[in-house]
Amino acid sequence: MSKIAWRVAHAFTKGRHSAPREFREVENQLYSLSAALAAFKDVCGGDVTVDPADLPARFRNGERDGLRTVTGILDNCRETLKHLEGIVDRYSIVAAGPKDKDPEESRLRRWSAELLKNYRKIEWTTQAGDLAALRSQLMVHTNSLDLVLGIIVSSRTSRIEDSLRESSSMMKEIYSWWAQNLKNTTTSPPRLPPERKPTEMEQTEMGLQGAVQPISFEIHVMENGAPQLLCAEARLHDGWAEPGSSQLFLCGCKRTAANPENGSAHPRVENIALSQLSFPFRQTGDAAVWTLFKALDRSTNEMVTVLIRNVAPADMCELEESFIRRLAHMQASAMLQQGISNMLVHVSPDGKHVRALNIQGDVKNLHKSIDAVAFRMGHRQLSKPNVEGLSLLNYQELGNALERYNDPSLAHAELWIYYAKENADEPADVTKSVVHSAKTLHQRLEDMRMELFITSLQSPRPDETVALHLQATEVECEVAAISDAELLITRSRDDGRHRLIVTSRNRCTVLTQVLPDTFFAPPPSQVPTFASPTWLIQLDASGRRRVYHYPNGFRFLRFRNTSAERMFELGRNALLQGALPVRELAVREKTEDQL
């Protein structure tokens, strides 16, 4: 089933540019469900339960109840995916796969015009539900699998006689929650009266309404050390990643009388292409800025540095996933295949990982104000003059290029110092250190420290494992309201402390807290407390990042509906009873070979 979920999600990915915006939400849910199914298979293997015949008689009924619960959830999940797979096969246009693949395999390229016109009338679920109902149903399946997984693993341990009755009771509660929520996802989409067919104009409006708008941003080019605005309404070219494509961007500015009717308002932006050394990375700072290093300007055949700015906050995560990280994988692979290893891409010292530049601190020209750098070791000190340059860099370790580019960022940054040759004919261009330069260097180092700190807040750390992973349509407390939320509870391998991370899917809001001991205090029915230091990371309307600290935490964590609140309570109870296993967080997408 994980393969089916991945294939269907891949179809939504391929068709996202021509499909309604609701398709992107369903796509994300399908990748999450695929990861949950893969984790379920990895942990449980071919035998997900013990044989009831091997149990004492007083436990056999409970084990059979657990089997029926798991079977019911998996069967309904399979039915949903098969139904959706049939819709994808019917309404998608297919094309042959790559030449080096099996010629019988095909890849879904885009949605048909028929689907774009009539997607509101399609029965997306087996109960004739619309896209919103499908998304809710997929979320219920994913959350149920995450909760049930822990109960199954617990029932296979050596203390099965002591825990099976309790686990069986929890399985029944989860099944009851799952069944009740599926009943709430069967609303049918509005339909036209059977005696009237939609006009051609109505069909066009139905197809275009809600279509995904391309991400727009500003393009700047560095000239004489300063950024020059090239286009204020640029967007990605749909085929930028296709083999042989030489165009990255399109100009979306409105044409004026001075521009040709069929031309671009800023033709130079459409001449920006990739070179063999092009590489993307982000700059430090509260305002989001991405750099495309050594891009090719085909109008002049020169290498230029391109800056991407002014991205809408809701689109930043999508831009990073669909362009920045994807391009980083493409260019890193191409460079290493050609034997190129540099500060952009290189293999880690242990030879196990590929490291790619992730974030760069702005320390250019500061070397001119540095007289020398002193290195101390014990009572010894070495001072080296002739500083020629500085670089402040953070790297990420690249995974599989087909895994949606969820690459871990390293928890440290590197300060590179470049020296001029001591026997150079001319003295190095250096001056004595001044207070202003020292403050500037210190501020750049603090900017990088803040980037590393925020990274450690919004994702599981290397020393943490994920104990609970759930999704909810909206989570609210007195300091934030987070829609389309992903909720994680992690556990530290070092001290056993748990940490709560609530993140909006578009990454505009992140709420994190080390949970107090009272969160797990018995009895299970007790309302959990969140009186512990809390950090809130928020992107404002202008796209600037704000970081807030609440030393006393918050008083409550509420969900939009009672079913989501019950889901969270089931997960908390499972943690209280030690039912949920500690496992690594799975990626949202895997290749078909891996599954």
Short description:
The chain contains ten helices and 22 strands. It has 595 residues and is of the alpha+beta class.
Please, could you describe this protein's structure?
The chain is α+β, with helices and mostly antiparallel strands and 595 residues long. The protein folds into four domains: 2-208, no CATH class; 216-337; 358-457, no CATH class; 464-576, PH-domain like, CATH 2.30.29. The protein is built from ten helices and 22 strands. The protein has helices at residues 2-14, 22-44, 57-91, 113-118, 131-154, 160-183, 200-208, 313-337, 435-458, 562-576; strands spanning 92-96, 106-111, 216-223, 226-236, 249-251, 272-273, 279-283, 290-297, 302-309, 345-347, 354-361, 372-377, 380-385, 387-398, 409-419, 464-477, 480-492, 498-504, 509-514, 534-539, 545-550, 558-559. The strands form four sheets. Strands 3, 4, 5, 6, 7, 8, 9, 10, 11, 14 and 15 form an eleven-stranded mixed beta sheet that branches. Strands 21-20-19-18-17-16-22 form a seven-stranded antiparallel beta sheet. Strand 20 and strand 21 form a beta hairpin. Helix 1 packs parallel to helix 3 and helix 3 runs antiparallel to helix 5.
